[in-house]
Amino acid sequence: MDTKQFILVAALVLVVLLLWDAWQREYGERAQPAVENETATDRAQDAQAAASADVPSLPADAPATQTPVTTREKENGRRIEVHTDLFRLHIDTRGAGIDHAELLDYPVSPENKDKPVQLLANDGTKTYIVQGGLLSNNIAPTHDDRFTAARDNYVLQDGKDVLEVPLTWEQDNGLVVRKIYEFKRDSYLINVRYEVTNDTGETWVGRAYSQLNRTGANGRRGMVYTYTGGVISSPEKRYEKISFDDMEEEKLDRTITNGWVAMIEHYFLSALVPGSRDAAYRYYTLYLDQQSSGFAEDRYVIGMTTPRQDIAAMQSGTFQHQLYIGPKVQKELKQIAPGLELTVDYGVLWFLAKPLFWCLEKFHALTGNWGWSIVLVTLMLKILFYHLSAAGYRSMANMRRVQPRLMALRDRYKNDRAKLNQAMMDIYKKEKINPLGGCFPILIQIPVFIALYWVLLESVELRQAPFIFWLDDLSTPDPYFVLPLVMGATMFIQQKLNPAPMDPVQEKVMMTLPVVFTVFFAFFPSGLVLYWVVNNILSIAQQWLITRNLERAGTGGK
Fold first, then answer.
1. DSSP H or E segment with residue 233
2. Which of 103, 225, 270, 347 is 20 to 30 A off residue 45, Cα-Cα?
3. C-alpha span between 214 and 177 (Å, rounded)
4. Longest dimension (CA), the chain
5. Nearest one of 491, 482, 524 to 8, comparing CA atoms
6. Are 205 and 309 in contact (CB under 8 A)?
7. Plot region of 306 (φ>0 → left; ψ -120 to 50 → alpha; else → beta)
8. Using an 8 Å Cβ cutoff, are 212 and 130 in contact?
9. What DSSP state is assigned to residue 238?
10. Euclidean distance between CA atoms 106 and 26, whole angstroms
11. Least confident stretch, 105-119, 441-455, 496-510
């Protein structure tokens, strides 16, 4: 196999690896629901869950009955508006859940900076909401019951770091439940707690639950795919995908200590984190199909329930958990829960992607521009692999030097392939040339390229990051295709510096390769194409310099 054949194979390998990595993200990590012995109580709970649809059944050690909940679309209650430095969201008094959340620091697009990303919604276009309530053998509010609030608007005032939004549910029998959302300045992490006051005259037994309820999505933007779906974490496996298909096939039911669950999409996520890492929480999924549930669309639910509490008469108790609604900022997620930063999914090459992102962050701290950070990372990688690349380019220069002799052999043995190959090998041996020596720089770049691809695609820090001139978002394709065209031109120049293929057909195929890659890269994030352009330019300079020096020396690098 000569150098040109290797380049063709390397290009094919690159495409296959990208497709395989995308496939792994969608299908490679399947949750294996825990299998437990079914009891009569379990069967009763399953029947009840089917009847109530969107309320999770209780584990076997909890009260076995549950207030029925209708499966029809429910009329909303009064909306409570909450405005902080990071959020504009709505809490529905029916169930005291969050059904609207805008992230004020993240505009929809560079052209529409006044319109923030709406992560949670229940507006007819999509359903993505946070629900919660209490489960008990006694009377308790679920996400279908009405709460009351003292005000319609809550605002985090200047000079204040904490905003509490309380909602209240109470019964004439003396049971009072206060659900309190606590927002902190400069934080996407929301503390949620239920304060239960039991003045009923008898012990109240139950637990709290919280769940993320949404319609499905495929996570595809044009030709780029990112995972959208559920995730569960446990000490045994810190990041495990539970796709919408998984939820349809089988209900998840696990008890985990020090875990969490989330719904993730491209740059953002919502996550449910236990109030205590030492307590065992139950985690579950539900699939609410359109036909049997009565909803306008299929719904997918992932949630958790707290440990059981027994609250004696005339006593109070508290259930607490944390809710994250926001961007996938790794350094913040890492502090919230173990493994939560893994929702920034770099794939199988994470061990390369994480150092690359770390370098990008350091260079960004110096330059203040993610584009120049990519340029500096490319330069750093070029320096790191300089000697290996130089050896490859010297091999290419030697191949180019003996190219006339190889062409003469091709004409002499055009009807005898075996003798042609033997004569070529004799020349390689005599001149001490490794015909594959020029392929190693390309081979090394492939995993680095894929790792950087996922860094640029997954890192919210690079979302809408501008570079220079018309490049105002390095995470999206170049709108004018300038970078892909420049990349194609640099590939063509590199070909001219390399020895020509022995096979005329192969030569024609090689001539089309820059065109094919130009079209291919036109749909890639412009930050990735920037990396490839800079890398090509540096490679051309290095290869030209080495070739010129060897030709001047007349030694062929021997």
1. strand 229-233
2. 270
3. 26
4. 105
5. 491
6. yes
7. beta
8. yes
9. S
10. 26
11. 496-510
Beta-bridge partners for 269: 264, 326
Q: Which candidate, 191, 213, 341, places its Cα nearest to that of 276? A: 191
* Model confidence, pTM: 0.79
Mean pLDDT, residues 22-40 taken together = 41
Q: For residues 467 and 461, what is the distance between their CA atoms, to the nearest angstrom? A: 13
Residue 15 clears pLDDT 90, i.e. is over it: no
Q: Count CB neighbours of 85 within 10 A.
A: 15
First to last CA, the chain: 22
Q: What are phi and psi of 435, to 5 degrees?
A: -60, -20
Separation CA 45–CA 25 (nearest Å):
34
Question: Which residues, 6 or more positions from 459, have their beta carbon under 8 angstroms from its beta carbon?
Answer: 328, 330, 344, 357, 360
Q: Which of 501, 546, 542 is nearest to 383 (CA)?
A: 542
Assess contact for 42 and 60: CB atoms under 8 A: yes
Specify the pairing of strand 79-83 against strand 153-155: parallel
Residue 38 has pLDDT above 70, yes or no: no
Q: And the tokens for 501?
A: 């293929």
C-alpha span between 344 and 354 (Å, rounded) = 10
Residue 238, classified by CB atoms within 10 Å of its CB into exposed (0-12), middle (13-18) or buried (19+), is: middle
Do 281 and 274 meet the contact criterion of CB atoms below 8 Å apart?
Answer: yes
Given this model, what pLDDT does residue 505 score? 62
Please choose, from the candidates 437, 393, 432, the residue with its C-alpha nearest in 3D space to the C-alpha of residue 3.
Answer: 437
Mean residue pLDDT of the chain comes to 80
How far CA 510 is from CA of 458, 504, 515, 532, in Å, comes to: 32, 10, 10, 18
- Which residue bears the tokens 């996400």? 143
CA angle 142-73-166, nearest 5°? 35
| pLDDT category of residue 260 using cuts at 50, 70 and 90 | very high
Q: Amino acid identity of 336?
A: I
Residues forming beta bridges with residue 128, ordered by sequence position: 121, 214
Over the range 159-178, which residues count as b (16 or more CB within 10 Å of their CB) and which as e?
eeeebebbbbbeeeeebebb
Q: What is the DSSP string of 108-145?
A: EETTEEEEEEEEEEESSS-EEEEEEEEEESS----TTS
Residues 501-541 have pLDDT tens digits of 555 666 666 677 788 888 888 888 888 889 889 988 988 88
